[in-house]
Please model this.
Amino acid sequence: MPPVSALDSARATLAGSLLLPADDAFDGARRPWNLAVEQQPAAVAAPAGVGDLRVLLDAARDTGATLAVQPSGHGASGDLTGAVLIRMTAFDELAVDTEAGILRVGSGVRWGAVVQALEGTGWAAPAGTSPVVSVAGYTLGGGHSWFSRTAGLGSDNLRAAWLLRADGTHERVDDDSDPELMWALRGAGGIVGIVTALEIDLVRTPSLHGWGLTFDVADATAVIRAVRDLAADAPSSLNVFMNSMRMPDAPQLPEEIRGRSFLTVQALSVDGSADALVDRVRRAGAVRREIAGATSPAALAAASNEPTEPTAGRGASMALSALDDATIDALVGFRDAPEQWPIVGIDIRMLGGALDAPRRQGLASLRSAGWLLHALSPMIPGAPVELGDASLAGFRALLTPARAARTIPTFLGPGKTLEDCGSTDDLGRLRALRAVVDPDGVLHEGRLPR
Ligand SMILES: Cc1cc2nc3c(=O)[nH]c(=O)nc-3n(C[C@H](O)[C@H](O)[C@H](O)COP(=O)(O)OP(=O)(O)OC[C@H]3O[C@@H](n4cnc5c(N)ncnc54)[C@H](O)[C@@H]3O)c2cc1C
Model:
C-alpha cells in the first residue's frame, strides 16, 4: 500500500478532491456501479483538470501507487489494491459537428447526455444500451451497440483521443500520429494512458425503423432458429437482438412479472426497409405483442429499460462463432430447467456486417464471431448467491463448444482478463507497449493477466 501521508500531501495541491480511507465520504466514493464488486483502492480522486492529473501522476510515482481510471465503474473488476481510483466527472465537454458527423466528448460524459444531444439531428451514437455508462469506459473497452452491424464497435469509431501520457505529456493522438497507441486504446483502455476527451464518428441514420416482437416461450426454439437463419442474408443496415426473460417465482418480486417467461426479438433498421425480412421471424411463432414503426435513439434507450441506479448483479457472457441447432436446443432446455431460475435474462445479439470489416485497427474485435450472448443474474435480497453462480457456470459450460476465439472487454465479467479478448501475441504487444509508454508502471494494469 502507498503511504497515506504522501497521498495526503498531494491532496493539498489539487483543485479537485482526493479521499482517503479515513474520510467519511470514502466508502461511498470507492464503490463501483455494480455493487456486487468489492474494490478497496488506496484513495479516490476527482481531478478538476489535466493539472490535477499531473499531480496524481507525480504522487503515484513518489508513493508506488498506481492510477486506475474508472468513470462510473460498470466495468469494475475488483482488485484495486494500492491504486488511486480516478473519477473523471469534471471532464464534461460535449460538442457535436453535425456537418461532419463527429462527436467530441470529455471522458466523464455518459451516453445518456450524448443521445439527448443527438436527438433530431439524423445522427446516432455508437452507444450501448445503458444511458449511465460513460462514453470513455464503453469506447475504450470495445463497446457493442444497436448500430454495430451497421458501423462496427464503439472502438472502431474512435477517431482520436486526447491523452495524458504517463510522462505528463497531454496531446491529441490519432492513427497518423501514434497507430500503436490507438490500437491499444481501442479495447485495452486505461492501461496505456489517461484519456481526457474522445473524438468519435457518428452513425448516419436516415430513417430509423424498429420492431419489437414478443413471443410465448413455447415458440422459443422456432423463433431463435428463424433469427439465426435471417443472419445469413440480413443487410448490415439491420441490427437484431433477442432477449429471453424468465422472472423467478420469488415473493420479493411484483405480482405482474413474478414467474413469467417470454422471448422478445428486437430489430432496428437504419434505412427503414426491412419488413419482409422481419416477417420471416414474425411467422415463426405466435406473436403476443408487437410494436413497430419509426423510432429514434432516445426512444431506443428508453425501451431498453436498463437500470439507472447502482445495483448488485452478476453476469456471464460469451461470443459464439455460430448458433447451430444443437446450441439452440441446449439453450432452450437450459432456460426451461427449474433450477436455472437465478438467470433472469439472456441477451442474444446478431453480429456480422460491419463487425467483420472494422474500419480501424484495435485490440477489441468481434470479427468472424456470429453471436454475442450475455446472461444476467441479479442479486435478489435474501436469495443465496451460490445458486446464481451455479447457473452462470452452467450457462458458460453449455456454450463453450460454440465459443468464438474472442469477445470484447466491455462484456468481461469481474475477475476476467484480456486473455478472453486477444491472442498471446496481442497480450505480448500490449505489454511491450506498456514498457515503452509507462516504464515505471504508474498506470494500473487493469485486466492484463498478472
Ligand atoms: C446496464 C448495463 C448495460 C450495458 N450495456 C452494454 C452494451 O450494450 N454494450 C457494451 O459493449 N457494453 C455494455 N455494458 C458494459 C459497459 O459498457 C462496460 O462495463 C464499460 O466498461 C462501463 O463503462 P464505465 O463508464 O462504467 O467504465 P468503468 O468501469 O468506470 O471503466 C472501464 C475501463 O475503461 C477504461 N477507462 C475508462 N475511462 C478511461 C479514461 N478516461 N482513460 C483511460 N481509460 C479509461 C479503464 O480501463 C477502465 O477500467 C453495459 C453495462 C451495464 C451495467
Notes: The chain is about 25% helix and 25% strand. The two ends are 18 Å apart (CA to CA). The first helix runs from residue 4 to 11. The chain has three domains: 4-86, 94-204, 209-411.
